[in-house]
Design brief:
This is Ribonuclease H1 N-terminal domain-containing protein. One of its GO terms (molecular function) is nucleic acid binding. It comes from Acetivibrio clariflavus (strain DSM 19732 / NBRC 101661 / EBR45) (Clostridium clariflavum). The chain is of the alpha/beta class. It has 2 domains: 53 residues, no CATH class; 148 residues, Ribonuclease H-like superfamily/Ribonuclease H (Nucleotidyltransferase, domain 5, 2-Layer Sandwich). Helices cover 31% and strands 28% of the residues. The chain is built from 7 helices and 9 strands, in the order E-E-H-E-H-E-H-E-E-E-H-E-H-H-E-H. The N and C termini lie far apart (55 Å).
């Protein structure tokens, strides 16, 4: 049973992070003068602390543990060239589909996301430009989180999120990687809205997803 969650807001990493192994936690704060961190006995409070709600119960830093329970989403991953986008997409035609594309220009320090939400023959496109101080994965996570605002709470339909790269969900389950606070924000929103999510990684098919989004946008303008 997992009962130890170590949250580091400021340490040797370049972003917030969460650990369930005390040794891993200690590595990122040891010797860091202005380290900020807390310990929690449940993942809900730990996630709330990361995304800004710091009024939660605190405990002592004295417990070791490894691993973490799964996030409230299903994960399906297709390796590069294992399956094409059209074939995978057709399998989820009876779900609400969220297609995610995005990018980041490190020279200009700006990124964007482009997200298409599809429910049968109805579409909603959302986009955000000029996202600063981020990474390609983070801008797409922003897009996913924002897209959930357009999904009604307690929706009975399954929701499928299509991405072409691993955004860190699997790493977040083990609390590794640099996107812990965004994964937790996503976790928190899914839980509060009581949604049923399947995240489909079609690795290496970024252009296919981008082309599909643009094709639908173009058809909607006719």
């Amino acid at each position: 049973m997992i009962n130890s969650y170590y949250v580091v807001l400021k340490g040797k990493l370049n972003a917030s992070a969460m650990f369930t192994d005390y040794r891993d936690f200690e590595k990122v704060i040891d010797g860091y003068k202005d380290a900020e961190y807390e310990y929690f006995d449940n993942i809900e409070d730990a996630c709330s602390y990361i995304i800004g709600n710091k009024e939660v119960t605190k405990a002592n830093l004295n417990t070791k543990n490894t691993g973490i329970g799964p996030l409230p989403i299903k994960m399906i991953s297709y390796n590069v060239n294992e399956s094409d986008f059209k074939a995978v997409n057709s399998q989820y035609s009876n779900t609400i589909c969220i297609y995610v594309s995005g990018g980041y220009n490190f020279l200009e320090s700006k990124g964007y996301y482009s997200v298409l939400i599809k429910k049968y023959d109805r579409f909603k496109h959302i986009k955000k430009d000029d996202i600063e101080n981020s990474t390609p994965n983070r801008v797409m996570l922003y897009g996913i989180i924002d897209a959930l605002d357009y999904i009604s709470d307690n929706n009975e339909m399954e929701i499928t999120i299509f991405i072409a790269t691993s955004l860190g969900f699997k790493s977040a389950i083990k609390h590794k990687g640099n996107n812990a606070e965004l994964i937790c924000e996503f976790y928190d929103k899914v839980k509060k809205k009581n949604l049923k999510i399947t995240c489909v990684e079609i690795l290496g098919r970024a252009q296919d997803i981008k082309d599909y989004i643009n094709l639908v946008k173009k058809s909607q303008k006719k």
